[in-house]
């Protein structure tokens, strides 16, 4: 029998104080200053740099274009780009549309992020000029190792950190070694701008090139202009992002509390669930709650959660190396194993005690339901084993 209470979706974009933001948006519309570097876009750019602890940040129209423009601004030599297959297609799109041939890297089986050792072997084999590691559900890859391998091979590193806004790490040693880091402000992210992206680079020349390229490549004098694109953020989305940024510390604290609580529920059923491993020194932002099912048919688990009014959704599926348009034909055993049984459970920016309780009950109930056939089989097998002795 299905749960008749309201369905809990995996993602639920939320904006605090929507009426106040709506009034602000109305003021912007009345002003006639809708885009082209207005006060909200400039204010957000300053405040996001302060939040990220960097000297400069460049804000663009969305997270996907952030990767594309970072590649162009850094003038990365075209060749092969190494990226995980366990990522959203936007990572692949940026590389392909920039003229790179994709090469897929396997993941660490526990953190689900790019495997530095496999990357090292791929760099030696393919001579790639670009590496695109990805933050997965708020958990960063081993950027220090990745950056060292890439630098030794002469490859640029652009960190697709779309999932990572607000994630904290004990060490920032890799940041000076990165070509750029990109973020997303999509409605499903922890910092909501509806759409939008941010690029941070330790190289001032890259940041300056980003600003030219996002504004059609225009320069002064105009004869010095280069081919660019229209990738500016408008005032409406900048105002929404700015309001979200100012409430972000509170939102992150809530998400971390929810994440810890739900991971604790998962940990009670190690024979059914394996939560994503969080490396030492990392405090994730609670972007998503990922779980790998252990020897359980994924369709059965999704259906069991659905009967309880909970959406369990496959994420980053299918893995990119399985896209028929690419015909990649590569073996990525850890990626394949994860994708065969990986789902995300609901984790929102604001969750009631009732919602959290329902999720915990569902985690326990689904585990008991899925484990029951194995327990029955074990009991049936026990007498025959005793007889054999």
Shape: globular
Termini separation: 43 Å
* Biggest pleated sheet: 7 strands, mixed
The percent of residues in helical segments reads 40-55%
Contiguous runs where pLDDT drops below 50 for at least 5 residues: none
Please count the helical segments: 12
Quick one: how many beta strands?
12
Q: Assign the structural class, choosing from mainly alpha, mainly beta, alpha/beta, alpha+beta, or little secondary structure.
A: alpha/beta
Q: Whole-number radius of gyration?
A: 23 Å
How are the elements arranged and paired?
Elements: H1 18-31, H2 39-52, E1 58-60, H3 63-73, E2 80-84, H4 89-97, E3 101-105, H5 116-126, E4 130-131, H6 143-153, E5 156-160, E6 168-169, E7 180-184, E8 197-200, H7 204-214, H8 235-246, H9 248-267, E9 273-275, E10 282-283, E11 289-293, H10 298-307, H11 333-339, E12 342-345, H12 353-388
Parallel strand pairs: 2-3, 2-4, 4-5, 5-7
Antiparallel strand pairs: 1-8, 6-10, 7-8, 9-11, 11-12
Helix pairs in contact: 1-8, 2-8, 3-4, 3-7, 5-6, 9-12, 10-12
Task: Characterize the structure shown.
With 389 residues, the chain is of the alpha/beta class. The protein has 12 helices and 12 strands. The chain has helices at 18-31, 39-52, 63-73, 89-97, 116-126, 143-153, 204-214, 235-246, 248-267, 298-307, 333-339, 353-388; strands at residues 58-60, 80-84, 101-105, 130-131, 156-160, 168-169, 180-184, 197-200, 273-275, 282-283, 289-293, 342-345. The strands form 3 sheets. The protein has a 7-stranded mixed β-sheet with strand order 1-8-7-5-4-2-3, with helices on both faces. A 3-stranded antiparallel β-sheet has the order 9-11-12, with helices on one face. A two-stranded antiparallel sheet has the order 6-10.
């Amino acid at each position: 029998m299905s749960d008749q209470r309201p369905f809990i979706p995996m993602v639920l974009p939320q904006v605090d104080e929507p009426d106040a933001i709506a009034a602000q948006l109305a003021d912007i519309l009345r002003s006639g200053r809708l885009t082209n570097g207005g006060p909200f876009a400039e204010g957000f750019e300053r405040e996001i740099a302060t939040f990220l602890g960097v000297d400069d940040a460049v804000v663009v129209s969305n997270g996907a274009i952030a990767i594309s423009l970072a590649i162009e601004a850094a003038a990365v030599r075209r060749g092969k780009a190494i990226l995980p297959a366990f990522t959203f297609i936007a990572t692949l799109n940026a590389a392909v549309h920039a003229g790179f041939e994709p090469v897929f890297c396997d993941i660490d089986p526990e953190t689900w992020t790019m495997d530095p050792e496999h990357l090292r072997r791929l760099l030696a084999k393919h001579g790639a000029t670009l590496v695109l590691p990805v933050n997965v559900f708020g958990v960063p890859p081993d950027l220090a190792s990745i950056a060292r391998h890439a630098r030794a091979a002469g490859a640029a590193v652009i960190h697709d950190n779309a999932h990572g806004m607000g994630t904290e790490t004990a060490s920032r040693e890799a940041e000076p070694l990165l070509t750029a880091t990109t973020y997303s402000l999509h409605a499903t992210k922890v910092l909501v701008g509806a759409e939008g992206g941010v690029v941070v680079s330790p190289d001032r020349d890259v940041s300056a090139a980003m600003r030219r390229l996002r504004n059609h490549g225009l320069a002064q004098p105009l004869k010095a202009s280069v081919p660019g694109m229209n990738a500016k953020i408008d005032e409406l989305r900048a105002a929404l992002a700015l309001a979200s940024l100012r409430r972000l510390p509170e939102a992150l604290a809530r998400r971390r509390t929810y994440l810890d609580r739900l991971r604790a529920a998962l940990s009670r059923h190690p024979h059914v669930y394996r939560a994503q491993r969080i490396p030492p020194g990392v405090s994730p932002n609670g972007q998503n709650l990922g779980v790998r099912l252990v020897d359980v048919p994924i369709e059965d688990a999704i259906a069991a959660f659905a009967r309880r009014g909970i959406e369990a959704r496959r994420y980053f599926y299918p893995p990119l190396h399985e896209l028929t348009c690419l015909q990649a034909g590569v073996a990525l055993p850890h990626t394949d194993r994860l994708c065969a049984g990986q789902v995300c459970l609901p984790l929102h920016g604001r969750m009631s005690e009732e919602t959290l309780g329902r999720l915990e009950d569902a985690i326990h109930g689904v585990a008991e339901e899925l484990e029951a056939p194995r327990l029955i089989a074990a009991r049936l097998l026990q007498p025959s084993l005793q007889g054999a002795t």
